[in-house]
Amino acid sequence: MRRRDLLLLSASLPLMTGVGGRELLRLRRARFEEIGDSVLLSVSLPELLPARERDAMASIESGFATTLSFEIKLYRTGSTQVLARHLRVVKIQWNPWKERYSVQIQDPGLGPATRYFRERSQAIEKAVSIDRFRIALAAHLDRGRRATYFVTVVGQRNPLDEPVAEAETTNGRGQGRDLSAFSRWIGIFIKSAPKAEKTFAVRSSPAFYLVAK
Predict the structure, then answer these.
(1) CA 23 to CA 16: how far, in whole Å?
(2) Is the pLDDT of residue 22 over 80?
């Protein structure tokens, strides 16, 4: 399979903050790859299940499923237009019959895939990691340094409404509003996100672009 590393730029949007300076989007180092016709994302949100949160760890040990949802959106730098939206749903729990921790991952358009782990830490690492997730078709994005892109990931633990894995994509290439408009817009979005036991949001940094052929 053809694999192309995507180039990353040091330039990025300013960190977005909410009321009282509380960060709405944390900058998070992410990896992007072009493999075949796909642009793939790898990033992790360990903040959703930190080992120091005893209640969260006890919930996993109880045998009841802890649900994680990851809403992933792709943007072109300088625009508020969502080029692609994906929702991944993960369930992690202790399986007393197999005496293993199970991690079930449901991605858009695919059946659930379950893996088992002896160690809780291994299961958690798998549950909070997005590894080589297809965020777009390369043909839907422009190439070259003038067309840079980034993603936002809003992760939630035990959202009140049961999430369903889904995807929405466009082949829009247009640029739009300025960065300040984007900051206001994304701030409103995160504040209005469905309620959950915990919410943590990141923006990939730095921006990336597809190498010209």
Answers:
(1) 6
(2) no
**Longest C-alpha distance within the chain, in Å?**
54
Residue 178, pLDDT above cutoff 80: no
If you average pLDDT over residues 54-79, what whole number do you get?
Answer: 94
Asked whether 88 and 72 are in contact (CB, 8 A), the reply is yes
Among left, alpha and beta (phi > 0; psi -120 to 50; other), residue 26 is: beta
Mean pLDDT of the chain: 83
Q: Is 61 in contact with 94 (CB distance < 8 Å)?
A: yes
Of 189, 201, 193, 182, the closest CA to residue 28 belongs to 201
Identity at 180, one-letter amino acid code: S
Token pair of 37, please? 């016709």
pLDDT of res. 191: 56
Count H helices and E strands in the chain, helices first: 3, 15
Amino acid in position 193 = A
Give the pLDDT band of residue 193 (cuts 50, 70, 90): low
- Ranges of beta strands (E only) in the chain are 3-5, 7-8, 16-17, 23-29, 31-35, 38-44, 66-76, 82-95, 100-106, 113-117, 129-137, 149-159, 166-169, 196-205, 208-209
Q: Residue 71 contacts by C-beta under 8 Å, 6 or more apart in sequence?
A: 85, 86, 87, 153, 154, 155, 156
Decide the pairing of beta strands 23-29 and 196-205: parallel
